[in-house]
Amino acid sequence: MLNVPFVSLAIGPGLAATASGQTPRAPAKATTWDKKQTGTQFIEVKPGTFIMGEGKDAQKAEIKTGFYLASAVVTQKQWKTIMKTEPWKGKVMIKEGDDFPATWVSWDDANAFCKKLSESAKRSFRLPTETEWEFACRAGTRTRYLFGDQADKLGDYAWYYDNATNAKESWPHQVARKKPNPWGFYDMQGNTWEWCSDVFQSKLLMNQRVTRGGAFFGNADSCRVALSFLC
């Protein structure tokens, strides 16, 4: 699969929480896992049910097994530590630095990262499913955005067209510089699209991968919690 620009990845170890069938609640205090390898911070997301999607496409979904998810997307430093490569090097609309997102990363690359990290850390890591991603992004909310149905506060939580590209800063910004969602996750709206593990199949679209979250060049509507983009 070709590299897709401005798509990054959030990762989570495949560790189960103990409870099941609960409604969403704030997770425990963030726990740092794998500090020796990357210093990545993972937050526990407990099981629960929620309304996934919006409008006529909304439906009840359940997370039966808890999981941990990185509090922010993988940074360039974290990627280089594990993969020893720089896929973003020399590409357009890129800033380089330890805390900038690792971009120009294909879905296959993202899974290779998870595999190498798992081998290094002796713990299982993978991409989140689309359902897990939306559950963690919503963090108990039911609105179009984390803060409500109108986009007036989006700039407080996200890098998107108005405060990035239109402000002559047309590149992915350093992670965790905006407000987190209620459960402590950063940049789940805007900045870079994020890979999920799902593979979409239909008669017209074969083997399409799912991304979520929007990007720095997209408008406010493209940063809605429920929006998916296929690559």
Describe this structure as you would to a colleague.
With 231 residues, the chain is an alpha+beta fold. It is 16% helix and 19% strand. The protein has 4 helices and 11 strands; from the N terminus they run E-E-E-E-E-E-E-H-H-E-H-H-E-E-E. 42% of the residues are buried.
What is the element layout, followed by pairings?
Elements: E1 7-9, E2 12-13, E3 31-32, E4 41-45, E5 48-52, E6 59-63, E7 67-70, H1 76-83, H2 107-121, E8 125-126, H3 130-138, H4 154-157, E9 193-200, E10 208-212, E11 228-230
Parallel strand pairs: 1-9
Antiparallel strand pairs: 2-8, 3-4, 4-7, 5-6, 9-10, 10-11
Keyword list:
four-stranded mixed beta sheet; disordered N terminus; three-stranded antiparallel beta sheet; single chain; globular; alpha+beta; 4 helices; 231 residues
Q: What is the strand tally?
A: 11
> What is the end-to-end distance?
10 Å
Strand order of the largest sheet: 1-9-10-11
Element order: H for helix, E for strand: EEEEEEEHHEHHEEE
**Mean pLDDT, all residues:** 84
Strand content: 15-25%
Q: What's the quick description here?
A:
With 231 residues, this protein is of the alpha+beta class.
